Amino acid sequence: MEKLTSRKSTVIREIRDLSRSAALREEKGLFLCDGSKLLEEAMRSGAVPETVLWKEKAPEDRPDFPREYLIPADLFDYVSPMSNSPGPLFSVQIPSPPDLDSACRVLALEELQDPGNVGTVLRTADAFGVDLVVLLGGCADLYAPKTVRASMGAVFRQAAVRMDAEEFVSWCRDRKLPLWGAALTDTARDLRAVPLDRAAVLIGSEGHGLSRELLQACDGEIIIPMSGEAESLNAAVAAAIVMWEMQRG
Q1: pLDDT at position 61 over 90
Q2: Element of type H or E holding 93
Q3: Between β-strands 220-223 and 189-190, what pairing exists: parallel, antiparallel or unpaired?
Q4: What is the 3-state secondary structure (H, E, C) of 43-56?
């Protein structure tokens, strides 16, 4: 196996650029994963890593990969987007766009900019059998390293797409899919009283909630009842509660 020792290596520069640039990920159709857990999940899903970087040594019982390299710890720490990662670091193809025709339990996120929250939503959606996660507006990149890591492998399984708001609302209308917005308003209904087994639910950012345009496009508003003093919930936590209600039917 070839060893890399220089930051000027073409492979090192390609991997580092891939971790930093959403535009490059889209152009190349590749994203970056870090850690043995994600490598196992990728292989289980049928995704074949294109380039694999091993930190100092590689396990003897590993499968064969098209391109794999050994690199010293200091160079690995330089190229990895994660701190103190044991590796491996690998690139893999972005999944093909999902089939949207059968989606009837849909969660949409607007302006959720924290990649950890977006990854957590993907992981929870996978756990609760949500058909589709939709990213609207300035949401974190679905394939940013922190999003991928927070998803704990769900990025390989959970159907997810990016749409603009008008396209999403039109898609719901065409499918006659009820559209509900999670909002802290006096007119919002207790989500336990609303049928969500066939519906699309919008979750906004923690700081600003849903935009006025999207709220106005909704068929109604829902709220998560709370008895404590907190004004709101973390967006990923709120999404998890909504998705739990979706799968309860």
Answers
A1: no
A2: strand 89-93
A3: parallel
A4: HHHCCCCCEEEEEC
- Give the residue among 182, 228, 225, 175 at the shortest CA–CA distance from 198: 175
What are the counts of helices (DSSP H) followed by strands (DSSP E) for the chain?
Answer: 9, 12
Closest CA to 182 of 163, 197, 204: 204
Question: Phi/psi of residue 240, each to 5°?
Answer: -65, -40
Bridge partners, 53 (sequence order): 69, 89
Q: What angle do CA 21, 26, 29 make, to 5 degrees?
A: 115
Residue 3 in contact with residue 70, Cβ under 8 Å?
Answer: yes
Which pTM was predicted?
A: 0.93
Place of tokens 């196992």: 40
Contacts 24+ apart (CB under 8 A), 52-59: 52/88, 52/89, 52/90, 53/4, 53/11, 53/15, 53/79, 53/87, 53/88, 53/89, 53/90, 54/1, 54/87, 54/88, 55/85, 55/86, 55/87, 55/88, 55/89, 58/1, 58/88
Distance CA 143, CA 149 (A): 9
- Rounded CA separation 123/157 (Å): 9
CA distance 221 to 136: 18
Tokens of 14: 């390609």
Provide the β-strand partners of residue 209: 205
Amino acid identity, position 101: D
Say what percent of the chain tops pLDDT 70. Answer: 100
Closest of 78, 37, 38 to residue 55, by C-alpha: 78
In the chain, what is the greatest distance between 2 CA atoms, to the nearest angstrom?
64
pLDDT tens, 109-156? 999 999 999 999 999 999 999 999 999 999 999 999 999 999 999 999
